[in-house]
Specification:
By secondary structure, this protein is of the alpha/beta class. The chain has one domain (2-356): Aldolase class I (TIM Barrel). The protein is 45% helix and 14% strand. The strands form three sheets. Strands 4-5-6-7-8-9-10-11 form an eight-stranded parallel barrel, surrounded by six helices. Strands 1-12-13 form a three-stranded mixed β-sheet. 50% of the residues are buried.
């Protein structure tokens, strides 16, 4: 019975995320408040741009991750295998959606991709509440079963409160992260689920040893919205009130500036120029989710590959036109920041010194 409920929920998530019904309604990710400064004399050849970067212990050929979306249902099988295969082809990262079905019910659908992605960065994924209830050895076995290089622990209180039958008690999360950093034999990545990470959260997870985070900020898919569309009665009304809740992606990136965290910027990133802007603000890489799910839904594997190639071409061109040979160089170039984002930059931040406010 539990297995059927989990698979049904995952299938409903896929169906909703293949549409635009679950987007944020009035809030952007604030990357529209960022402009890279054009360099008309870059002294760089396009093929000299080296997009490679290190994230979660592996070198990516480009600073891009196919961000967490799905798993645990029959529909996820083909989706995740196609996404992982493209990650392998282009040397980028791939993340599973929540692996609660694998951990708790032994459901493997959508979680077996290593035969099509033998060398790609593959990220496991579990909720903080489920991580607290599981032993470190159980989580290690889960990663072994899916071939995960690192464990993403997602924080999603807003989504869970709206989700029918969702978790309501979020005590003990920091202790759980501290245990996993200490005991797990793979990197631990702290990720939000559409509501962003604040500086306070960044400081707290850094203090317990976390070194890698994923913003998953507001402005893309509203997972509160996803669960609102699945909810009924008073729960649905509550979800409507909090549909646009969260810290925009760009704001989350700048909030984490100076904390010595490797940041993946996800949340409404839909093209290579947005990804480049996030990197210029300080992210190590960017994650793209729903646009790639939609590209596959509309055009199959070929449509997915075209979308990924387009994002990578845009990333490369943005580096060239900003006069940067690498993502690290891009983070030294001037960047224009609008007032809506500038107010999120912490006082004393290095970015505040470089940004044109």
């Amino acid at each position: 019975m539990a297995e059927g409920r989990i698979s049904t929920r995952k299938a409903e998530h896929i169906a909703l995320c293949e549409t635009d019904k679950v987007a944020f309604r009035g809030k952007t990710n604030l990357l529209d408040q960022v402009e890279l400064v054009h360099d008309a004399l870059p002294e760089i050849a396009l093929d000299e741009v080296d997009l490679s970067t290190e994230y979660a212990g592996k070198t990516l050929r480009a600073p891009l991750v196919i961000a967490a979306m799905t798993g645990g249902t029959a529909q996820a099988e083909g989706i995740n295998r196609d996404l992982a295969a493209m990650a392998e082809v282009y040397g980028i990262g791939f993340g599973f959606g929540s692996q609660r079905p694998l951990l708790q019910e032994g459901i493997t659908q959508g979680y077996e991709v290593r035969d099509v992605a033998p060398t790609a960065l593959v990220l496991g994924n579990i909720g903080i509440v489920q991580a607290q209830d599981a032993s470190t050895s159980e989580l290690a076995r889960m990663l072994d079963r899916c071939g995960g290089d690192a464990l993403v622990v997602h924080l999603n209180p807003a989504m869970e409160v709206i989700q029918p039958g969702g978790d309501l008690d979020f005590r003990g999360g920091l202790r759980t992260l501290e245990r996993l950093v200490r005991e797990l034999d793979r990197p631990v990545i702290v990720k939000e689920t559409g509501c962003g990470l604040s500086r306070s959260v960044g400081v707290r997870v850094r203090e317990v040893g976390v070194r890698i985070v994923d913003t998953s900020g507001a402005g893309g898919t509203s997972w509160v919205g996803v669960e609102t569309l699945r909810a009924r009665g008073e729960q649905r009304s509550l979800g409507e009130a909090f549909w646009d809740w969260g810290i925009p992606t760009a704001a989350s990136v700048v909030q984490l500036d100076g904390l010595d965290l490797a940041i993946c910027a996800t949340g409404g990133v839909s093209d290579g120029l947005m990804a480049a802007k996030a990197i210029a603000l300080g992210a190590r890489c960017a994650g793209v989710a729903r646009p790639l799910l939609q590209a596959r839904s509309q055009g199959g594997l070929e449509g997915l590959e075209v979308a990924i190639r387009q994002i990578l071409a845009e990333l490369r061109m943005a580096h060239l036109l900003a006069g940067a040979r690498s993502p690290a160089e891009l983070q030294t170039r001037p960047v224009l920041v609008g007032p809506g984002l500038a107010r999120w930059i912490p006082r004393g931040s290095e970015l505040r010194e470089r940004a044109l406010l």
